[in-house]
Amino acid sequence: QVACLQCGRKRGVTDVKTFMDMDQDSEDEKQQYLPLALHLASEFFLRNPNKDVRLLVACCLADIFRIYAPEAPYTSHDKLKDIFLFITRQLKGLEDTKSPQFNRYFYLLENLAWVKSYNICFELEDCNEIFIQLFRTLFSVINNSHNQKVQMHMLDLMSSIIMEGDGVTQELLDSILINLIPAHKNLNKQAFDLAKVLLKRTVQIIEACIANVFNDLMVYLFLFYSDLATQNQNIQTDFRICLCSFNFPNKLSFVVHLQQKHLSILFMVTVVDFFIVTEYLKVRSHDPEEAIRHDVIVTIITAGKRDLSLVNDQLLGFVRERTLDKRWRVRKEAMMGLAQLYKKYCLHAEAGKDAAEKVSWIKDKLLHIYYQNSIDDKLLVEKIFAQYLVPHNLETEERMKCLYYLYASLDPNAVKALNEMWKCQNMLRSHVRELLDLHKQPTVRLSYVSILFNNIENLPDPGKAQDFVKKFNQVLGDDEKLRSQLELLISPTCSCKQADVCVREIARKLANPKQPTNPFLEMVKFLLERIAPVHIDSEAISALVKLMNKSIEGTADDEEEGVSPDTAIRAGLELLKVLSFTHPTSFHSAETYESLLQCLRMEDDKVAEAAIQIFRNTGHKIETDLPQIRSTLIPILHQKAKRGTPHQAKQAVHCIHAIFSNKEVQLAQIFEPLSRSLNADVPEQLITPLVSLGHISMLAPDQFASPMKSVVANFIVKDLLMNDRSTGEKNGKLWSPDEEVSPEVLAKVQAIKLLVRWLLGMKNNQSKSANSTLRLLSAMLVSEGDLTEQKRISKSDMSRLRLAAGSAIMKLAQEPCYHEIITPEQFQLCALVINDECYQVRQIFAQKLHKALVKLLLPLEYMAIFALCAKDPVKERRAHARQCLLKNISIRREYIKQNPMANEKLLSLLPEYVVPYMIHLLAHDPDFTKPQDVDQLRDLKECLWFMLEVLMTKNENNSHAFMKKMAENIKLTRDAQSPDEPKANEKLYTVCDVALCVINSKSALCNADSPKDPVLPTKFFTQPEKDFCNDRNYITEETRVLLLTGKPKPTGVLGAVNKPLSATGRRPYIRSTGSETGSNISVNSELSSPAGNRSREQSSDISETGVSENDENPVRIISVTPAKTEPVKNKEIHSDQATQGNISTERGKKRTAVAAGSENIHQKTEEKKADESGPPAPPKPRRGRPPKSESQGTTVKNDETNKPSGRGRKRAAVSQESSGSLEAGNAKAPKQQDIAKKAAPAQRQIDLQR
């Protein structure tokens, strides 16, 4: 191939020389070389991969056009177009003047210009495409290394096309005029000069073309303003001004006139700017060219700064869109332009209230950009805040007034962004403080310094961060005075004025007069701007407090600033609360604390809560320095802890614990009266005491753990959780607003939280209290939230309690000592909450799960729960779960990269290790009952791919092979949860085969060798046996093909979607009495009845009977009309079949009443006996599950009837002789006892002291 190319080049050089020597008069030679001329225009040469060959061919073709002029040897119009586009592409080689082939490129240009070869294209219909491409090419390659000859030939070539053509199209005109825009001028000065000379040379033609453009524009303006003239008199004036702009003194000197006016040659753009013609700019704001988008922003902002009435909301909307442009230069221009408009019209109020209202949205939009991932965006937002939103150079009172009312008028997302900005700056200050502390040690570890700065992206160029850290560390080590200046800058007592002096002094020391551009100095300035307290100091906090006092007294200018006094007070307290985290020392003054005490006495609960939290964050020296404040504060905190709102009680307890030395005495004075006065009959008065007691036991476990134990056993569990005193509203809703939740349920929720806080305070399980609590929480999940099973609690209240129980287990799992004792069954129950039938339960639980995982508080196995989100029928929930997975996986991978010590804990950190947990969880999915059922396997595949898709986006360290190896290794183990149960192990191996099928089909790299042998969690899998070999395929080849080809799933949705449900396929639980079942029959015996199975197989008539509302996601309820059942035969089942290990084998089944003739399964049912042939109760929709087909739902095989009871089923009684007190795991009383003791229901309790 190389030899052929060399031969081609030699032949091309020979041809070039031959054609160069020929002239137009040699007719014989023209005929002789005509075949060669045609051959050179073949596709082989026009698309040759070698650029040298293409250049030689282009030179030959140019000479051919010269020799055969004025006619060309090519008759096909398509061939001519291809040739000239090919020649145009070769002209790009003119850009590099140092290229050894430049002389040939120059020869090509010279030949084309001299002969005017492109004039042949006038005969073509689409010649404009060729000309536009030529003009763009020439303007793009011109640069300052070209001599006068190159520019002259370019001008000759382009001017001949303009002057000898029939006219200039708009597109061709744009390709010339675009180079005169200031943005393009800055990019290429030579292109600007070339365009300017070209316009002067062709002014006669160009003037007529521009005049036609303006005539069209005048018509558009006339129609545009005529429609609006009746609405606004000013528009008529603007239109007259616009028309007058077209009356030029001398049309022949049109270009000169525009230049004298210091306007762009693109006068149409200028007219559009100032007279609100938006269509042109709308198109240009989305132009592919960065410079054009940039110029649109500059144009609109310039017009807006001159007169805001010249730009409408749509034009400002274009600028708003460009704040998210993909190019940093455009984003920066848009953000800075909006900031300038805000400062001019909102802060300085140069055009009145109407103008300020028009741009009031800018502050929110600019702060929202802080959510972007780019560090450049974050730094620019911080700069804009310090210079435009709240200018730091204002006097303290004026600056704080600006901040006070800005904070009060921001939307919630902007407030969060501003809080996050202060949080990041404060974190950076702490990192710099750590760096300075390192320099006080004998040796400074550079590696630690690098890690310190890499942990937070605080520099505009992360690629140079390592070099910056090295040099900055060296400078700090060599210059003690610089270190002292930096220490003063980050000192809590540094004032804003001192910070300004320190920043200038440090910059002066690092500046180098011999080096005009100093990247290192720029980096340091970025760092100093972020850590310098340019807004907040003690004086500023005092000014903020005075402003808030004026709002309280009613003497502030709140209404004039556009906020109500109540809004200003509440926002002011929230602002002070945020600043109390970042600048706690600045609050330490009697005047500030006196104002906060005044806020504590206000009736507004939010204001009082924020004031308590400020005391908690800043009051560490109150006890020693301000005894008068202390004596006033203590009784207020006691009162809030006893009778305040739950949030106030929490903050009051934490405040006492944080700022007082005798906190044990203070907390005891709260604990003792509250613990003695607990009364479950008045739940309204229970919520605040439960909150206070829970936080006291968590903060002071040594002092209150033992007294709290008796409170938990005797009151919390026995008296509160195990009793239903009130009857909930039977409205069928799955969720109710907070204000509609009954006080008893709110008290129960707080009781569950109290149990968790009590255990988190102890941080040990010596008394086995955690085991009992976990059994209680599991029983609450099994019972669907109705722990007493008295049917007195409403559906929405049950949802609240399920959410509280699942969240409590997840909270306990964050403590290592409790995570170890959580059984796989309890983990599975907790996981199933994410598939709850109530939309809000799923949503809140997923948010709590994500929040804990992102902070690396939860074990890795809990990330596997997100795989179940593939079953969620709501698209937004699935999308949210996927985003949570992406965030969690990226955080864990980044943590491993930046923390070398993390390699020792890969089993708990490496995202890929979630695969075995996911496989085990899906193997125990209650919906997975038939290992060979294709629909169930398809559900498994979707759940697996939901997680694997995110994990397999990158093949880091051969992770695909690693995950495949884990699945293969699991097949060599047994299920530690049920090691001797063949069916459980078969389901586990089936899930492994589905996972292997997915991995093999999605990755070609999974067959490589695994980087290391994975370690499987012993809590879920047994150790592999030496002689055990499992090479069986648990899914057939046909099934494998069905899974990979994606057979369409049956339609239908979960109970959270407003669509009718098909038959659920869940066997309903039929409550029985002694007379129904005869003697010695367990409550589970009906489930094993073949007759019952046959009757359920026959049931197929489905009718819609009611709707249960779940906020905006109502659930459609259906009932099934079953066939008659045969009498149930006596069958003896021992009570040990209903052990804790079987709790989670069924989920989403809801217990149903047997009220004969009932048309709505949500209506309150009466307990009545049914004859043996009576129809079973209709099944309710499964919780949190996507639909199944009716065929699947109505077919239940006999071999599936012996499954242990699951979620929603009542557990078998322990024994007739057992005492009334039950373990939490067995806390569900049988129905027989309920009927036998109607007059006096059995009192059940949980023994937490075992």
From TrEMBL:
Q: Where is the composition biased (Basic and acidic residues)?
A: 1126-1135, 1161-1172
Gene Ontology CC terms: chromatin; nucleus
What Gene3D superfamilies does this protein map onto?
Answer: Leucine-rich Repeat Variant (1.25.10.10)
The reply to whether Cell cycle figures as a keyword in the UniProt entry is yes
> Which InterPro entries does UniProt cross-reference here?
ARM-like, ARM-type_fold, Pds5
Keyword terms of this UniProt record: Cell cycle, Cell division, Mitosis, Nucleus, Repeat
- Subcellular location field: Nucleus
Q: Where is this region: Disordered?
A: 1064-1250
Bias (Polar residues) occurs at: 1072-1092, 1136-1145
Q: Which GO terms describe its biological process?
A: cell division; DNA repair; mitotic sister chromatid cohesion
Q: Which domain of life is it from?
A: Eukaryota
Indicate what this protein is called per its UniProt record.
Answer: PDS5 cohesin associated factor A
State the species of origin. Chelonoidis abingdonii
